[in-house]
Design brief:
Residues 1-16 have low confidence and may be disordered. The chain is an alpha/beta fold and 452 residues long. A hairpin with a 2-residue loop joins strand 13 (361-367) and strand 14 (370-375). Helix 2 (60-72) packs antiparallel against helix 10 (318-333). It has a seven-stranded mixed beta sheet, sandwiched between helices. Strands 1-2-3-15 form a four-stranded mixed beta sheet. The longest helix is centred in the C-terminal third of the chain and has 20 residues, at 336-355. It is built from 13 helices and 17 strands. The chain binds pyridoxal-5'-phosphate.
Length: 452
């Protein structure tokens, strides 16, 4: 039995699915890379929902760790207690992130983690006697979350529209997308071009008014997996340093190992002043997110105010920390980040080869187990399909019918048009499971394209 008609029940409203799957089946069970609905239908998890399930579903070690924690105590309030789950997770995260980071603030979602990063940046300058540094700069075609602050720094027109007028006055610079570069700029010139644009924006606003620049090292849903062009991160880091502007890396989706390094910016040899992680951190077992910062960011706050002025009732929830610890220990024990780094490259090549038969597959890109497929109407101009065609949603729907979970995203080109599909399997998916994802994805793309 499925949940047909459940939208009329108490406490539920009309269901709007961005993927166009309106008649949602009821989920009952997960095992490894598979999910099962109430009718017994099996789905292979090709995207972990939105890149969440880093180690698959119902892993016995993780469930056992959570249960052990619950049997002792679910949660110790952060102003009264610490816990060994929280302390061990913090020590592990700091070790994984390298010597640059010294402080971790926990929360329950990527939006909250970004909200905390924005607030810590503001508090940092306030405590340094620079309270006029209040402005944020972010990028077009980005997504940082659904709270008002995180939404304010998000360049996602469709998701902002209903809230315009009540959002923070954030300045935006261009998306840094090598597949859709600014006119007249070649691949070699991209990093310098975007750095110059950021530099000009900071000068226009006045460096003494700008607190931070926020960006996703690999853009997720808003771009369909867009890695930064080579040299970009170092170039914008230099601009930020020059103007005493903090660099905030939103690794909510691309971080926690998904790119083949624990931190995505490890690939670039850069340590942002603040970094946020969430989805893969506790792998969907219990909501958990974190904001990390360097000693230089924290020092004036600790000396002037004593503590970060951010956090929530459930920050550092003990059972959530136990889940995060168990997930990260499993990843370490089974060397899954190495697996993602090595297998990710070949998986991406296999995907490129399998999809090469379709002219409409314009680009296959990404890093590790974070791969984006961009669908286009015309190769020469890279023109997208019209929005009304709903192509990415159609691929998602066809895949879902066939027992594949992928993550279709629309609007990557200009906020309205553009079709991308994100593939983000569990780090411990077997080769046979990866092959199944690929076969079903190829079939779904073909079926969706057939319907003209
Ligand atoms: C890059 C990025 N940042 C922030 C968020 C917001 O996270 P959450 O939905 O957990 O609040 C998301 C969610 O999709 C994301 O992809």
């Amino acid at each position: 039995m499925t949940a047909r008609g459940a939208g009329a029940g108490p406490g539920t409203g009309p269901r709007a699915s961005g993927f166009g799957i309106t008649d949602l089946p009821r989920i009952v069970r997960g095992r490894g890379s598979y999910l099962y609905d109430v009718d017994g239908k099996r789905y292979v998890d090709g995207s972990g929902g939105p890149a969440v399930f880093s180690v698959g579903h119902a892993h016995p070690d993780i469930n056992a760790a959570i249960l052990r924690q619950l049997e002792n105590i679910a949660y110790g309030y952060r102003y009264l207690f610490t816990s060994s789950a929280l302390e061990s997770l913090t020590a592990l995260l700091l070790a994984l992130c390298g010597p640059g980071y010294r402080h971790v603030v926990y929360s329950g979602s990527g939006s909250e983690a970004n909200e905390a990063a924005l607030k810590i940046a503001l508090q940092h300058f306030y405590c340094r006697g620079l309270p006029q540094k209040r402005r944020f700069i972010a990028r077009e075609r980005s997504w940082h979350g659904n709270t008002l602050g995180a939404l304010s720094v998000s360049g996602f027109a469709e998701r902002r529209r209903a809230f315009e007028g009540s959002l923070l006055d954030v300045a935006f610079v261009s998306a840094a997308n090598a597949y859709r570069p600014p006119e007249g700029i070649g691949a070699d010139g991209l990093a310098a071009h975007f750095a110059a644009e950021l530099d000009a924006k900071i000068r226009e606003l006045g460096p003494d008014t700008v607190a931070a620049f926020v960006f996703e090292p690999i853009v997720g849903a808003a771009g369909g997996v867009v890695p930064a062009p080579p040299g970009y991160v170092r170039a914008i880091e230099a601009v930020c340093r020059r103007h005493d502007v903090l660099l905030i890396a939103d690794e909510v989706m691309c971080g926690s190992g998904r790119s083949g390094r624990f931190r995505t910016l490890e690939h670039d040899g850069v340590c942002a002043d603040l970094m946020t992680i969430a989805k893969g951190l506790a792998g969907g077992y219990i909501p958990l997110a974190a904001t990390l910062c360097t000693p230089a960011v924290a020092a004036p706050i600790f000396s002037e105010a004593g503590a970060f002025q951010t956090g929530h009732t459930f920050s550092g929830h003990t059972a959530a920390c136990a889940a995060g610890l168990a997930v990260q220990e499993l990843i370490e024990r089974e060397q899954l980040i190495e697996r993602v780094r090595v297998r990710g490259e070949s998986f991406q090549s296999e995907m490129r080869a399998a999809l090469a038969r379709y002219d409409e597959v314009g680009d296959v890109r990404g890093r590790g187990y974070f791969i984006g497929i961009e669908l286009i109407a015309e190769r020469q101009s890279r023109r997208p399909f019209p929005r009304q065609r709903g192509l990415s949603a159609e691929v998602g729907r066809r895949g879902f019918e066939d027992g594949l979970i992928c993550y279709p995203c629309a609007g990557n080109v200009d906020g309205t048009h553009g079709d991308t599909i994100i593939i983000a399997p569990p780090y411990n998916a077997s080769d046979a499971e990866l092959e199944e994802i690929l076969t079903k994805l190829t079939r779904a793309v073909g079926a969706a394209l057939e319907r003209r």
